[in-house]
Every structure is written in structure tokens, then in C-alpha cells.
Amino acid sequence: MDKLESFHQDVLRGLKDHPKWLQPKYFYDDNGAALFQRIMEMPAYYLTACELEIFRDKTVELAEVLHVQQEPFDLIELGAGDAMKSSFLLEHLLREQADFTYMPIDICGEVLLTLRDRLNRDLPNLEVVPLHGEYLDMLREATEQSDRRKIVLFLGSNIGNMELEDAHGFCRTVNRRLKRGDTMLTGFDLQKNPHTILEAYNDKEGITAAFNLNLLERINRELDADFNISAFQHYQTYDPIDGGCRSYLVSGTAQKVNIGGEVISFEANEPIAVEVSRKYTPLEIDQMAIETGFAPLAQIADSKNWFVDAIWQV
Ligand code: AVI
């Protein structure tokens, strides 16, 4: 099945369900990627600055826990993007003359080419092997390419976009692909003042709303649909008990939407669940490590203690 056909089927499956849902992985067409870039630049969206601070100010600590001087290794980054944060680690490793290959994985080929060109220019001594595709497929390819020790980076609180059970399943699969002694470093957003969290996902400028609504625009554009976008509103919640920060698109009016020949009915005020951005406690993070076959080695936090990079070993 080609990409457009799976997008079509996933959209219909979610919108025929009760309650309706759509998968957040479809946010990131060119428009969505540009809007996400603007989200990361918003002061209220603290996650990027916190993790950047960890990689900038605690590089030595990260490198020590990852045992980068021990033996040659492959440093694999799931969803590398522009590798802004990991570049601090890469520069440090080159300075320390660590023996390693950097393997950025990304679903977007264009992003990988830009990253490779930038790294070749800025860090000419770095060996870069870009891998284009889905995280887990490419991780398998990386483990088949060489049997060097692996260090896997999964930054940005991307794990937060999975429901708890799916996050466990994902970590278990990564664990199965790795060997004893390999490590995984994952960025987790921590539970904190609920207002701070809600403001990060509910900015007054409407950038997050535009990011979410772009998903319906994308469906209109690519799947020949006729959503009345202006009738939809972005609605965000945060539950400080379970850590679930959830976004919905709510149809203000009753409407019938034609998606490539299939009609989907909306009642007035009917929501579509579009994304969870789960927030964790330090204890839950260690529990997740243990339950998915890892030993937790360290949690390295930013100065506000809002975000941690957790390092686990197989
Ligand atoms: C990509 N991901 C970690 C972001 C998050 O914080 O959940 C996506 C996002 N959605 C709205 N704002 C940012």
C-alpha cells in the first residue's frame, strides 16, 4: 500500500470510530513541519529550551553515563530532524576522539539530506550514515549493518506522543533490537505546574491551533475532502493526575464531510482526539525502563527540573 493510501485508510478508520480520532504522525507535512518549528520557538513551549540546555550544559555528564570512551560504537538518533541538541554531544565526542559513527534516522528524506550537508560542512571529521525511513525499521537496519555497540537517542519528548501502553511496546521493541551493554537515551517531559503545561499547548497566538487544524487542511488537500475548517476549534486539556495532555479538534456545527467519496457526519460540538503529549514522573520513567527490559542508569535534568533525559542500559 502506498503512503497516500495508508493515510486515507487511517483517516477513515479514525473518523468512523466513536469517539473520533486521528493520528498525530500525520501533522508533519511541509506546512505542519514549519508550524512545529514555530511552536519550538515559542517561549511558552519550554520543552525544546530545557532539553537544549541539558545537551549544552551537561554534555560531559551525558557522555560519562553513556560510556563513550569504552569501545567503538554507533550513535543512532531516532527522528534526528536538524540535530540541534545532539550536535553538542557530537562536538564533544569528536573533541574526545571517541570512535563512533553517527546514524541519524528520519522519515523525511529532505531533512536528512540537509542534515548530512550541514554536518559535513560543520563537523568534517564526523562519519555520518543517514538512514531514511520508520524508526524501528531503520534501527533494525542499523543493527544489521554492524555489530558495534549501539547508543540510541530518542529526544524531544516524542515518547510522550504515545499512549502509555504503546510507549511500553515501543521500548520493548527497541530493547529486542539491542544487545547487552547497549544504551538508550530518551527525553521525557516531567509533570509540573499544570498551568505551565497547558500554556505550552494553548498559546494565545494560535500557533498550536493552526498546527492541529493543518491536519484537516492536509486531509482536504491530499484526500479530496471538504472539511469546513473554520467551524473547527482547537481544544486542549491537561490532567495533572494521570499526566495526559490531550488535544482535540471540535466541530462547532453539525456537518457532513466528504472524504474521497465517503461521507462522515459530525454532530455539533463533536470532538476528534488528535494528540496526547504525556508528562511523566521520575518514578514512572524508571518503572518503564525496568518493565521493558532495561536497567535505568541516570536521569539528567535541566536547571528547572522540568525535563529529563533518561539513560537506560540493556
Ligand atoms: C513532537 N511532540 C513531542 C510535540 C509535543 O510536545 O507533544 C508535538 C506538539 N504538539 C503540540 N505542540 C507540540
From TrEMBL:
> Under which name does UniProt file this protein?
L-histidine N(Alpha)-methyltransferase
Record's InterPro entries?
EgtD_Methyltrsf_superfamily, MeTrfase_dom, MeTrfase_EgtD-like, SAM-dependent_MTases_sf
Key word Ribosomal protein present in the record?
no
Q: Does the keyword Magnesium apply?
A: no
Which UniProt key words apply to this protein?
Answer: Methyltransferase, Transferase
* Gene3D superfamilies the UniProt entry points to: Vaccinia Virus protein VP39
* Histidine-specific methyltransferase SAM-dependent domain location: 7-313
Upper taxonomic lineage: Bacteria, Pseudomonadati, Bacteroidota, Sphingobacteriia, Sphingobacteriales
